[in-house]
Each structure stands twice: as C-alpha cells, then as structure tokens.
Amino acid sequence: MKQISYTKSAIKALRRMPANTAMLIRTKIEAYATDQASQANNVKSLKGREGIRLRVGDWRVIMDDQGNVMSMPCWT
Questions:
Q1: How many CB atoms lie within 10 A of CB 10?
Q2: How would residue 75 be classed by pLDDT, with cut points 50, 70 and 90?
Q3: In 3D, which of 60, 31, 57 has the Cα closest to residue 44?
Q4: What is the rounded CA–CA span in Å between residue 53 and residue 59?
Q5: Secondary structure, 3-state, the chain
Q6: What is the rounded end-to-end Cα distance, in angstroms, of the chain?
Q7: Which residues have CB under 8 Å from 5's CB, separation 6+?
Q8: What count of Cα atoms within 13 Å lies in the side-chain half-sphere of residue 32?
Q9: By the 8 A CB rule, do 71 and 7 touch?
Q10: Mean model confidence pLDDT for the chain
Q11: What are phi and psi of 48, to 5 degrees?
C-alpha cells in the first residue's frame, strides 16, 4: 500500500467541489493506493512530464509515482 499525501492545491480543489464528488475521488485514490491493479484501466502515464493521471468520472487526478496527489486540474 502506498502512502498518499495531498498538495495544498489538491486539498483546496477537493474542498471546493461537491461533497459527493470529493468523496468519490478520495475513495478512488485510496483504492489505487491499496491495489494499483484495481484502477489499472483508469490510470495513464503523463506525456511531457513525470507522473500519472487517474481518471475519476469527469475528473482527472494528477499524481506522482510515490503517491503524492499533485492536483485535480481537469474537469471535462
């Protein structure tokens, strides 16, 4: 199991979004930390920089390989 840590911008983004969406995102991040294979179809390597992208519904969570959640910049 990976240790998860959030940057200040990620915490700020979670606080600003609806509570049910934030809970879903945190649940998916914890599931990825526990078992990376369970979220394998929702994870891709980033192009042009280090890290991975975890897709949660319409949201994208940017993380590095050590489990640090960098940001949630994309909503499509």
A1: 21
A2: low
A3: 60
A4: 10
A5: CCCCEECHHHHHHHHHCCHHHHHHHHHHHHHHHHCHHHHHHHEEECCCCCCEEEEECCEEEEECCCCEEEEEEEEC
A6: 30
A7: 67, 68, 69
A8: 28
A9: yes
A10: 86
A11: 90, -10
> Please, which pLDDT band fits residue 38 given cuts at 50, 70 and 90?
confident
The residues near 8 (Cβ < 8 Å, ≥ 6 apart) are none
Q: What is the pLDDT of residues 15-30, one digit of tens each?
A: 998 999 999 999 999 9
What tokens were used for 7? 């940057």
**Which token pair is 66?**
């050590």
57 Cβ partners below 8 Å, 6+ apart?
A: 21, 24
